[in-house]
Amino acid sequence: MAAERTSRLLGYSAFKVRACRTSVDISWLATARRRGIHQSSRISALTASSARLRPKVQPLHQPTFLPQPLAASGSRTIFIQTENTPNADALKFLPNHPILPQGLSSPFLEYLSPRSTLAPPHPSPLAARLLNVDGITSVFYGPDFITVTKAADTNWAHVKPEVFSLITEAVTSGEQIVNTVENKSSEAGQEGGEQDTLGYNENDSEVVGMIKELLETRIRPAIQEDGGDIEFRGFSNGNVMLKLRGACRTCDSSTVTLKNGIESMLMHYIEEVQGVTQVLDQEEEIAMQEFAKFEEKLKAQKGPGAVASTVGKGSLDTVEA
Known about the structure:
Helix content is about 40%, strand content about 15%. The protein contains 6 helices and 10 strands; from the N terminus they run αβββαββααββαβαββ.
């Protein structure tokens, strides 16, 4: 009986010890969990704080600062270059922008009066504003340049800033420099807008074709460089009829250019060519008459071998006999 009671007491004590250990284990586990959660939050907080303060090492091949692209704006920056020409009364402007409309058969347009800037088939608001400037007499459009000619008694220092401003405003605004409208009349308001006279024509003779090819490949680039262009007006009895445009139209040395440059080249390569004649309008005839008087005066002063040079207006050279 005593032995049975003792075994029961020992079993109860063991059970109590196990229950106590279990409660201690549960209590310790809860405490450990709470400590773990608290410690993990501290660690994450410290890690985030340290990450903000920790210095970063940038790779050597990457810049420490990457420039951000500038936001696109509505403004447009252009660069307009100005070039002198052999004609002191003409300036060539290169706005780095196409001037003539696409599909135009002619490589140039020339406006000689305010009325021509409004007439079909190719009116031009810019040419109208340029010819409205006091002292400006003509406006010439090439493929990528504009030649502005002034009167002889006008100073470039007075008109060039306004001309430059008008061209800049027209290009930056994006307006159409040359418009194309229907021409109900048979006459064109502008010079050179109908067709390229140096273009291929199946009805041309072999000699005319050779003349056009030489003018197109060798002569035209040089004249365009001087702010002008050239037209082929015919070939008859060995004589080539041409018309100069733009800065070359009213240049005092245009006759020298024709005789010493164009005529010599054509006669050298094409034996059928015997001479070159410049086709003139009324204004050009007056200018040529004045130039002839100047040559006569020059010969009287400097001798019969003195001629005007193509270097610039009024410059003189002496030709050895």
